Amino acid sequence: MEQSGIKLIVANYTEYPGPRYCSQGNSSGEEFYHEILNTEFANAIESKQKLEVVLDGTAGYASSFLDEAFGNLVFDFSLKVVKDNIIITSKQEPDWVKMIFEEVFNDWELRRKESENPRKTKDHSEWFRYSDDKITKKIWL
Fold first, then answer.
1. Residue 4: what pLDDT?
2. Cα distance between residue 52 and residue 86, in whole Å
3. Which residues pair with 86 in a beta bridge?
4. Are strands 51-54 and 86-89 parallel, antiparallel or unpaired?
5. pLDDT per residue over 33-56, tens digit each?
6. What pLDDT is recorded for position 1?
7. How far apart are alpha carbons 119 and 97 in whole angstroms?
8. How far is CA 11 from each of CA 3, 27, 71, 115, rounded to the nearest angstrom?
9. Most exposed of 42, 53, 99, 104 (fewest Cβ within 10 Å)?
10. Dihedral (C-alpha) 121, 30, 43, 125: value to the nearest 10 degrees?
11. What's the rounded Cα separation, in Å, for the pair 100 and 71?
């Protein structure tokens, strides 16, 4: 029997998603990734469930927020692992989902393969990364 997935509703984190980086303002994509999305995704994988991320219920998104949050996910876990373990939904703006799957994921997979590390604008506590067929938590450079 397949277990139910884990649901992450962005609006429970913030009604007003902010800019790309922590240094640019509150509720940034960088902050959302490091404080919420990374851990929830790792927990889903470890419990052999999919993570469903619901984008609806916010005041809207800057594309840079979505790019940074979901791009970092691909950088840390790989395109295949992310696509195999995530469901992203939006009834309000299905174009957000399309942009993430068709643009963000592919762009960041290329960055990952070229070892182009994401920019960090503040010191983050340890976060998860999939490496050598296992999930490891540490402060990555």
1. 61
2. 6
3. 51
4. parallel
5. 999 999 999 999 999 999 999 999
6. 33
7. 23
8. 24, 11, 19, 32
9. 99
10. 20
11. 8
